[in-house]
Amino acid sequence: MDRLRASRQSLEQAVRGQGLVPVLGPEVLWVELEGAPGQPAVAAPFYALVAEELLRVFGLDPAATDLRDPTAGWSLHQAVARVLLDQPRSSIERLRRSVATIVADLTPRVRAAPLLERMAALTQLELFVSLTPDDLLLRALRRIRGEALVRSSAYAPSSDSGNVCDVPAPLPGGARVFHPLGQFSAGVRAAIHDEDALEYLFRFQQEAALRAPVLLETLRRRDLLLLGCRLPDWLGLGLIRMANEVRLSAQDKKMEFFAADAQPGDLADFLARFNPNATVFPWTASEFVGEIETIVAAIGPQAPAAIAGTATSAAAARAADSAGGATVFVSYASEDREAATRLCNTLLTLGFADVWLDQRQLRAGDDWSQRIDEAIERCTYFMPVLSRQADGRREGVFWEEWRKAMVRAMRIHDAFLLPVGIDAQPPDRAGYRRIFGGFGSELRALHLLHAPSGVFSSAAQEDLRQRAATAQGPSHG
Fold first, then answer.
1. pTM value?
2. Residue range 90-108, pLDDT digits in tens
3. pLDDT in tens, 354-388
4. The total number of structural domains that make up the chain
5. Contact (Cβ atoms closer than 8 angstroms) between residue 62 and residue 55
6. How far apart, in whole angstroms, are the C-alpha atoms of residue 402 and residue 411?
7. Which of the chain's termini has less CB crowding within 10 Å, N or C?
């Protein structure tokens, strides 16, 4: 119970920081299919309907296989395997076209899965990974968040490794969907059986650094939530390992969350033995989404997300100064950009008048060094982001920013430097060789805030909220 309670708290942190990525499998796609005139709609798994129709197309009896048994694996893969066993000379490409046609025909006739509608309403969920090639999730997101705010991309093996299939930049309040196993509605080929899925995953792992670098980096820095992913063990393990930079048994890695609608078996046993940060919660997919809804309800209204694109100008920052509003300069190594963006989003919700972040405040044509110098001289607080990534950098612009901030700190009587550690473990004064060496040794004597992956603890948030409320803007001269 203690571990589940701690994991639930970690889940809450990930939701608050928009750091949770749902990975959705076919079992979440329970839909209602329109019945004949005068007949009620039929509730069924979408891919059971697809699989049954595929068997009919190839002259096989769907009743001979229980395609609606949720413990039997992906029903589409079962149906394709049965066709190939019965008709070994069948063309895989003909099968693929048949599946694409059936998916396209069925999609307009079904109501989107209720679980997808609920997840679409949770704007704290910004990036989704869909393991199915349909657009049911896209339809639900576009209905609730708006057509213009939802974008998708899909992977399929290609002879041209330069054929980019990366996720686009996030939009405030929007959503991004990535299909690693293909997407029929986008005109991309899709995996339709187990060997297909293995090939897609294997090739994607080889090509992702070139074809989807933003997605790969994002997956490796956020937490995964697997819902409805009753995958073959080899596929599930491959997907999880691909989304991690370090081996699964490493202690200093991110957390993943797994819903317990996957039946206990080799995959769950493997994770229990080798992944200390994985938790199989005792919830169904619907109950898991209910937990996230409870967390979101407790958070309350959010400040505008996605700082990039909502930048304030230097003139606006000076206006905040003159009005006495507290401002923060967040300085970080480029490897920590995602966590730094989360920090900034939270700082704005805590009452700071402006947050300075290079990716949103620098514009084409700006005198780069002058703008940074001006911002460091005008901010109320300077927040260096401490991490193993930063400590490993021998050279970086952030070192110069920190040095200039420490020079200014010597002229300020009250607190000015607010260092924050973003690694999983609290910042250890003995653990950062470069950060606490040389001119950085001054940081050792300061109170070090902790915000794993960019998510502040409640105590740190309260401390910062009070600073935002009581601090005066900088005076110059």
1. 0.62
2. 899 999 999 999 999 999 9
3. 888 754 443 333 344 566 778 888 899 999 999 99
4. 3
5. yes
6. 15
7. C
